[in-house]
Amino acid sequence: MDSSGESRRLVVVGGGMVAQRFVEALRARDTAGTWQVDVFAEEPRKPYDRVALTKYFEVRDPEELTLGDPALWDDPAVTLHRDCAVTAIDREARTVTDRLGRVHPYDELVLATGSNAAMPPIPGNDLPGVFVYRTIDDVAALRGWVEQKREAGTTAGGFVKPVRGAVIGGGLLGLEAAGALKALGAEATVIEFGTHLMGVQIDLGGGHALKRLINDKGIGVRPQTATSAMKPHKRTGHVGHLEFGDGGRLDVDVVVVATGVRPRDELARTAGLEIGERGGAVVDLACRTSDEHVHAIGEVACIEGRCIGLVAPGYAMAEVVVDRLLGGEATFPGADTATKLKLSGVDVASFGDAHGRTEDAMEVVWADPAAGVYKKLVLSDDARTLLGGVFVGDAAPYASLRPMLGSQLPGDPGAFLLPEGGGGAPALELPDDANVCSCNNVSAGTIRAAVTEHECTDVAGVKACTRAGTTCGSCLPLVKKITNTELQRAGITVSNALCEHFELTRAQLFDAVRVADLHTFTEIIGRFGRVPEGADGPGRGCDICKPVVASILASLGNGHILAGEQATLQDTNDHMLANLQKDGTYSVVPRMPGGEVTPEGLIVVGEVARDFGLYTKITGGQRIDMFGARVEQLPDIWRRLVDAGFESGHAYGKSLRTVKSCVGSTWCRYGVQDSVGMAVDLELRYRGLRSPHKLKLGVSGCARECAEARGKDVGVIATEKGWNVYVGGNGGFTPRHAQLLAEDLTDEELVRTIDRFLMYYVRTADRLQRTATWIQDVEGGLEGVRKVILEDSLGIAADLDEAMARHVANYEDEWRAVLDDPEKLRRFSSFVNAPRTADPTLAYVPERGQRRPATDEERASGVIIAGPKLEVRA
Amino acid sequence: MSVTQEQPAAAAPQTDDLSWERVCLLSDLFPERGSAALLGDTQVALFRLPDDVVVATQQLDPFSGANVMSRGIVGTRAGVPTVAAPVYKQVYSLVTGECLDTAGYSPRPGREPRLVKYPVEVRDGVVHVAVQ
Ligand code: SRM
Ligand SMILES: Cc1cc2nc3c(=O)[nH]c(=O)nc-3n(C[C@H](O)[C@H](O)[C@H](O)COP(=O)(O)OP(=O)(O)OC[C@H]3O[C@@H](n4cnc5c(N)ncnc54)[C@H](O)[C@@H]3O)c2cc1C
Ligand code: SF4
Ligand code: FES
């Protein structure tokens, strides 16, 4: 309360997203302390990010979803009453009553009660196992149920019966819920009453493409299906199957109903406020209800004749009421109903008049049904003004086109729909008033001002300053682009600095080192290092720049990676020429080129693993990994492997890992080329090549592609005439298929093409950037890469060829070199004062006939079978 | 080389009744890298900095629970000598033992995000460490 004691009482009913934004905005603007605010929330927690509800399955901590700065609720002018629903409004007396019967007076009242998940009147909708998807409590209960069902379906033998889930409703929310069921390990089938998925947002063509994408996620879809009943399981009484109008049936263990929302207008109704035809408290453009002291915002408000189930319009209403309460004249600007599906791996977005309902509207469609891509722009009759759009399978154009809604598009609209790198859409310079972030109503101009006037120097700063990109995140690529353009315009270099020691990027540093012909870290940091803030010299590097310089020096051929000062630069894996494991031991992976290994080789590996007590596993890269080797054992292990003809597999390096092969023409009845032979040749050629990230290749003997070559950085597939080569594939976090670079090459052409591709990548990619993202960064994309390596557009092909030839000529086995050098061997001591003593804290337990590190609990309970020394005959 | 220096220890204040142990020769340690040492039951990480100052910290990595600190990359942050844990890459000041960057991780239950430091003296080329 302010000192004059004149503050007025404001009551907010509802503690959801819009209420939170309302209070936050009011406290930011009500500097005079006019309003004392009481917020009544039915849910037991602080307002949280409902849009991000599905994240709950990842983070599992409801606190992580809390919206805004929690300090808002410590503000003396604000009181949040949690778990305290309002049960009645007395408009005459201007009071509200809470569920405990307490009466609170108000001068102005704001209703922000949101919506309920609708529950259609299907018989059996109250059976245990039927859920809605609206609150944290809902998702927590759903998770618990699925976990319990899974446990119940796990037999003593470890066989797990899948939990079968169904989602009724194929809209945005239903698809998100289906994704969540999958993430919980359940099966999911989406039941949609209408003709296609996401019928509100996208048209039939988009719906078909979407169904394909959803199916690809392993989610079933049944369009045009009415659910007539949910039936209990005979024994458990839990929901057991669904019955459909067409006579069909689906067995289920869990059902999520996501058929829409109903405004929570019960308070407004009993208080006698005007209610919309389809529910909701009717408000004018100032968000006033039929009582001038009662305002409604968010999903409960029926504005311009309808309730809107999106957060952005709710935020806009919150800002309007704040302005009005402080004497302003703001009115609701109209709703931006652009939406983007938040289901990972499925790109769907729509905005504006997605169904082309405007009179004489024209549609430009680009579709690739096989790839599940459908893109459409809706334009005015002159084919220039953008009225709306639908994107399925590739929503890349969405972020930059949405803000152009209602504006004229430069150039041919079709160009915006072509796949990336396929024609070059004209650059869009957004007008200042274009709305970039619809969740938070932030315009391009506001983002520019954050840089020019508020001195933000990066995207994180702009986000904090403007709130752009802080809700659904779909605008972030655009926010980043505008921010960086503006920074450059202001003469501020967008920092691509490697770390505090180097201003340069990895690619720049690579060139600098190569051209200046430097060979040690000391020379390099002396010449190209910078002085970090607060220091009086450039320092001695760090865990970022040292491995980068190590990699550059190795790529440029500076001898053994443990030679001289280079040893100080290596990450622990490279330093020990092995991969560090969680307990501090290492794994050992000998190279098996192309996945080929002789029976004698297998026997040696088996004997070594047995004699040193190593856990053995076949890797995903067609070779054998032996785990649990101690530092001081590594040389002994390798001596035996090297004697048997094995060499380092570089599993530890950012370098060539494996060349996966299929058996090919030598044995397979379909093979058209010797894929194993080619894989072995390629692996031996590129072994030891240090690169910005790891490199994987694959060679398949025919188009059946048993080697999964298109999932590799370089994939080679045999044809009748030779080899097709694909580049830029990977598995991992964001899997990508490699794209065709050249066709029907001879062996020599193939090798030369790969030589140049790899060398160009090694020289110009960023730190830890794999080939797929690097290709995107190369000017002209894949086409640009093709020009450089096949047409020599930069005139560097000979140089690349020569660099690769040097690499091949200078290759030596890193492990053999260590074994031959007592000074290098000294690094493999467990303790400087007890070089052969094992780390006494290592402990193991048996599992499936081998051993693994003991957990903390096992250590505490003493079930450990073996200390560090287990080897049978070392 | 015979360098003699004394270094302040943050966690273990240096007093006269410390028991010093001869551990190795300075030349046994690799410049700008760590080595592990076993002092009774205590595992210690020794780091030889570019100016031949030797720093001793606990070998236990508070974030992974493994005895591996000596295998991290030695470097500097704003001029302060540091080591980066080899498992999850937390960065520690070798001056104070304090964790300068948790890399977004939390220490293992019951562990503090800092390294205990032990007093070190290099006398006539021999490294001595005191563990109380
Ligand atoms: C051992 C192995 C798993 C297995 O038991 O099969 C494995 C183990 C590790 N992988 Fe892998 N990956 C293994 C095959 C794969 C594959 C499959 C393949 O190669 O065909 C993939 C997907 C294909 C790909 O790379 O595109 C794969 C994608 C990753 C990724 C994600 C890369 C990405 O671009 O997103 C990482 C993380 C990274 O490198 O940053 C990773 C990182 C790792 C690390 C290095 C994590 C770490 O730092 O401890 C693991 C340690 C290996 C070790 O200690 O020996 N591993 N990893 C496989 C070794 C193959 C080999 O013989 O060298
Ligand atoms: C899984 C999911 C994903 C979504 N994704 C998106 C998206 O990507 N983009 C988008 O724009 N929107 C999305 N939405 C919709 C968005 O969450 C809502 O539009 C937004 O939360 C509306 O805010 P609100 O404050 O009006 O309502 P709510 O956030 O529902 O808050 C209303 C609150 O009022 C409380 N309340 C009700 N009655 C009373 C009473 N009598 N007394 C006290 N408290 C009461 C309720 O318990 C509730 O906590 C999503 C919703 C869900 C469930
Ligand atoms: S890819 Fe072709 S050659 Fe290779 S195993 Fe499969 S069918 Fe046979
Ligand atoms: S559009 Fe949702 S956060 Fe910007």
Short description:
Chain A is of the alpha/beta class.
Looking across the biggest beta sheet of chain B, what order are the strands in? 2-3-4-9
Structural class of chain A: alpha/beta
Beta-strand fraction estimate of chain B: 35-45%
For the biggest sheet of chain A, the summary is:
5 strands, parallel
Largest sheet of chain B: 4 strands, antiparallel
Radius of gyration of chain A: 32 Å
Integer average pLDDT of chain A: 90
Q: How much helix is in the residues of chain A?
A: 25-40%
Shape of chain A: globular
Number of helices of chain B: 0
Q: Which fold name corresponds to the CATH topology of the domain at 8-117 and 263-325 in chain A?
A: FAD/NAD(P)-binding domain
Count the domains of chain B: 1
In quaternary terms, these chains amount to heterodimer
Question: Could you characterize what this model shows?
Answer:
The complex is a heterodimer of chains A (874) and B (132). Among the domains of chain A are: 8-117 and 263-325, 3-Layer(bba) Sandwich (FAD/NAD(P)-binding domain), CATH 3.50.50.60; 130-258, FAD/NAD(P)-binding domain (3-Layer(bba) Sandwich), CATH 3.50.50.60; 347-428, FAD/NAD-linked reductase, C-terminal dimerisation domain (Enolase-like, domain 1, 2-Layer Sandwich); 506-570, no CATH class; 655-812, Sulfite Reductase Hemoprotein, domain 1 (2-Layer Sandwich), CATH 3.30.413. Chain A is 28% helix and 19% strand. Chain A has 25 helices and 38 strands. In chain A, the strands form eleven sheets. In chain A, strands 3-2-1-7-19 form a five-stranded parallel sheet, with no helix packed on it. A five-stranded parallel sheet of chain A has the order 9-16-10-11-12. A five-stranded antiparallel sheet of chain A has the order 21-22-25-24-23, covered by helices on one side. The termini of chain A are far apart. Residues 870-874 of chain A have low confidence and may be disordered. Chain B is an all-beta fold. Chain B has one domain (19-125): Rieske Iron-sulfur Protein, CATH 2.102.10. In chain B, 0% of the residues lie in helices and 39% in strands. Chain B has strands at residues 20-25, 34-39, 42-48, 54-58, 73-77, 80-84, 91-93, 99-101, 117-118, 120-123, 126-130. In chain B, the strands form three sheets. Chain B has a four-stranded antiparallel sheet with strand order 2-3-4-9, with no helix packed on it. A four-stranded antiparallel sheet of chain B has the order 5-6-7-8, with no helix packed on it. In chain B, strands 1-11-10 form a three-stranded antiparallel sheet, with no helix packed on it. In chain B, β6 (80-84) and β7 (91-93) form a beta hairpin. Bound molecules: siroheme, flavin-adenine dinucleotide (FAD), iron/sulfur cluster (SF4) and FE2/S2 (inorganic) cluster. Iron/sulfur cluster is lined by residues 662-664, 668, 670-671, 675, 700-702, 704-706 of chain A. Chain B: Pfam families: Rieske_2 (PF13806). Chain B: Residues 21-129 form the Rieske domain. Chain B: It comes from Antribacter soli.
